[in-house]
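cron nightly-structures :: item 1 of 1
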Amino acid sequence: MEFYPELKTHLANTLAIESQVRKQSENEIRNCRDTDPRKFLASLTKELADETNPDQVRLMSAVLVKNFIANKGSDQRYQDYWIKLDANFKEQLKTAFLGCLATQSLIVRKQVASAIAMIASIEIPRNEWIDLIPNLSGNAAHDSIEIREASLETLGFICEELQPCDLTPELKNFIVQALVRNLSADASLTKTTLLAAKAFFLALPYASNNFKVDGERDYIMARIFELLTLENEEIRVIAMQTLVEVGRQEYEFIKFYFQKICEVTALAAKSDLERLGAQGIEFWTSLAEEEAQRIKKNAFVNNYIQQCCQQLAHLLIECIQKVNIQDDEEDIDEFGVALSAGCCLGAISVVVGNEIMEPVLGFVSTNIQNPEWIKRYSALLALGAITEGPDKIRFMNVIIPGIQNLIQMFQDQHPKVRETIGWVMQKICESHSDVITNPTILPVIIPVFIQALQDKPRISNQVCRAIEYLSYSCGGSDPFQAQNYLTPFFKPLFDSLFQNAHRTDFDGTQCNLALSSFSALQALCENAAVNSYDQLYNTLLPVLQLIEQTMNTAVHGEIKSKEFQDYLTGLLQIILVKVGNKVDNITASNIIKLIVMIFQNQKKVTENGLIALSGLINGVADRVDINEFGSYLVFALKGTDDECVRLGCGIVSDLACAFREQIASYLQDFVPPLIQILKDSNQDRHSKLQALVALGDLAMCAGQQFSNNYLIDTLKILESASKQSLSSVSDDADPDLYTYLRQLRVQIVECYTTVVHGVHQLQHKQYLAQFVPNIMVYLQQLLEKTYSPSLVRNNLLYKYIRNYKRAFLA
């Protein structure tokens, strides 16, 4: 076996103080790798196994071995390199790695364990190295503590790298038994127990079969409960984290240990150990979320939260008062037990609804005017936490009589209380806006909101969110309503938020007041009623002027200018969608010139410019001159920025709908890049979905012209997409892919419909007739229960099938 003798020096120099020495050594290491990867692996293993080497050399060797085998740099040259190595060479390396687990250096041992787990993640799913887990599990009972601990740590890393489906039931049982046996209350084995506890937390998904056996489940739970009694804080925290995961993973079996769980979580929550207390409360939060999901899916529920609702509420009210923030820490976020208690109150309120109100509102009414600011703060935390649970009428009847007292808290002396009342109002506006829009309350609270916007950044930030949610709730379902609750207050709210966005006192803090102000502005404008349109149109010129100012980065700096440009163009889009029909042709042309300036300034087509362009087209419709920006749109469609590609596809759809049959003049510009998007296997799937929509819109609007040039290509693409859309994926297994495939099926059907709609000539009908049998089969497959068709969608599909039969099969 050949080695690089100079590699040891290069490894040592990777931690040199001089940056030039470090960079040179890193380059030399890469050269060794690229010159002879096999020799490189052998040399790293040699340096790793050499106990005389400094820890830093051995540690770096282990890191590089793992990264190379895992191909962390995603270098195509080394894709599956480990798999392709000959078996004898791999066996020699693996034997060396296992030998290194016996090292006395803990940091080296940990990295070696991680490297072994990486190899296991490659080999075990391929039914290779199948004796590794039995050997490690056996060594977890070794007389040598060092060997035992090394084996436990490696098993933990293996569980982290692999998936339960990668292992046989026998191998999973080996792991679980080995780890649980080492969960000991013996004080002399604290370190071993800690490693076993950490590993078992990672191995819990592998223990499902063990939990189905009464005796094994009882044994595992007894060990977890025992760990919670130990003095070592870290072990207790991990044990509680494991209990939290048990609640999520083994929900049905909680009933056998329910009383004990109530006891240990209450003790943890009341303890002085912040991390332990937070995890004790987290158990109930996760359990409540699990039950809420089950209720939503009409699945079986054991009603654990309902059984202990009142006791749990009183425990959480006690814990929510354990505030960590000191008087002089107004810019610090709450964390720990108090925050956990608030989150848990919110989660259980969703499950039990109105039942949470009595204990919480009793605590709130007692402490809302308490002389101690922490009591007032805790009362508001509790009130805000439960807003999602109770029904609207019950909440409104209880809150409205006391709303004036809440409004007055914007004048509280302590900024943390003022910040929290802002958050409470945000939650009320989000879930119970009827309280705020009450005719006796709204005229009082809007001036208070406007005044509070001028308060400290963290307070102003919460008020922005409250206005944002209030705006959305006032929008209603009718986009052409004459007025809504916020119509009388549109201008003062817009002016105050616009001014607020330009504050500088939040710079350097975690609070992005510009973002929250513009988010509220966008919500206000998006939901503006018709009677506010004149005022909304009057905001157009100042917004355009400010966008132009962002071109000069010398004023605010490049980063700040770009950030404001993004916010302003987003706002511009909404304004143009609403009142673009009022824009004259000269102004429309000037807006396009401004957008082109953004592209030229950035030397690329930008997301914010496309957003503004989309708004202009939606507002001005066919009065835009496509020639002024068409080349930039094509550039976006051909680009590599996924978001710009999707926006470009959306703009093509907008143009098709605006220009109708006149869009035929631009088919040669837009259709080829859309087809390329759909053909490109590396293209983002959501971009393909938007391209399919755009292609369908062009087919429908351009009609005959589209069929003349692009019918065959489009039908072939649709046929290929149809096959992909029938992939069987469950919502639980991959919710994103499941949603995408549902959307894809809808768009394919719509695209087929628009294509047929544009086919008139006999020649084109003959082309289409070749694809009709497959189209019919596809539409009939969509009626199967596998694809969850709704009644409305079924009726549409039947209609499409009848139309196809009449047109082509009669």
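cron nightly-structures :: done
The radius of gyration is 32 Å.
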